[in-house]
Amino acid sequence: MVILWRLMLGHLLADFTFQSNFINAWKRKSIWGMLAHCAMHPVAYIAFTYPYLNEMWVDTPWIRLQGWTCILLIFFLHFIEDEWRVFTIFKFKLADNFLYFAWDQVIHYAVIFMFFPVRMGDSALWVPEKWPVLACLFIMVTHFSTVFIYFLEKDLFAGYFPDFDEKYLTMAERLVLALCFLLPGWWFMPVVGVWVGNMAYLRHKRLMDFSWFSFYAGGTLAALCGWGARLVYYS
């Protein structure tokens, strides 16, 4: 599970935090853009799993693969999946909707699960290290939630991708809400209530003119991730 969480963190960073609007547009126009995007993944994986790369991640009677080989295979399969997504969207003039987004992520996580090592003693512990799990949750609060909410809102209400100011203001609001859950004892509860009230006030006064869907969906995701982070942090 140590390697799994580190791979998950690498995927979230490369697929969301490091994937700027420029990279997202470039990968849809050029194979070089796709290669640039996909190359971010093995870089992140290697950075987080470097101490384990010489170990056998896949060790069965039929096949044995070191960490280096597994990362190269994950990179290759990620490239194939992303190219397939772009090809089908443009070839058949399909909408890049929430279902495409969800399917794409399911495939990527399934590929990661194919190659992470499962060992007795390690697999029984779901959270062997806290920091990569917490990092995953806070990326989900920020960049992942932005894309997740955008696809849902676009499909349901013809919403638009937030501009620079709205994107980072909503991420900051969600991040603060999630961080409130890490306060010690039960003091976090009134603080969470105060912050949610502040978010609602700012939206009501149109000081932050976000859609109602973005407000409620973002707040819900931030609260869920914040509660998950609390369980991990204080476990």
Layout of secondary structure:
Blueprint (H helix, E strand, L loop, with lengths): L1 H16 L3 H9 L1 H19 L6 E4 L4 E3 H25 L6 H18 L14 H28 L6 H17 L7 H17 L7 H22 L2
Antiparallel strand pairs: 1-2
Helix pairs in contact: 1-3, 1-5, 1-6, 2-3, 3-4, 4-5, 6-7, 6-9, 7-8, 7-9
Q: Order of strands across the widest beta sheet? A: 1-2
Q: Tally the beta strands.
A: 2
Structural class, by secondary structure, is mainly alpha
Number of domains: 2
- Percent helix among the residues? over 70%
Major β-sheet annotation: 2 strands, antiparallel
Strand content bin: under 5%
Compute the number of helices.
9
Uncertain runs with pLDDT below 50, 5 residues or more?
Answer: none
Distance between the termini: 16 Å
Radius of gyration: 19 Å
Give, in order, the helices and strands: HHHEEHHHHHH
Mean pLDDT: 91
What features would you highlight for this structure?
mainly alpha, flat, 9 helices, 235 residues, 3% strand, two-stranded antiparallel sheet, 2 domains
Explained architecture:
The protein has 235 residues and is an all-alpha fold. It folds into two domains: 2-124, no CATH class; 142-233. The protein is built from nine helices and two strands. Strands 1-2 form a two-stranded antiparallel ribbon. The model has no long low-confidence stretch (mean pLDDT 91).
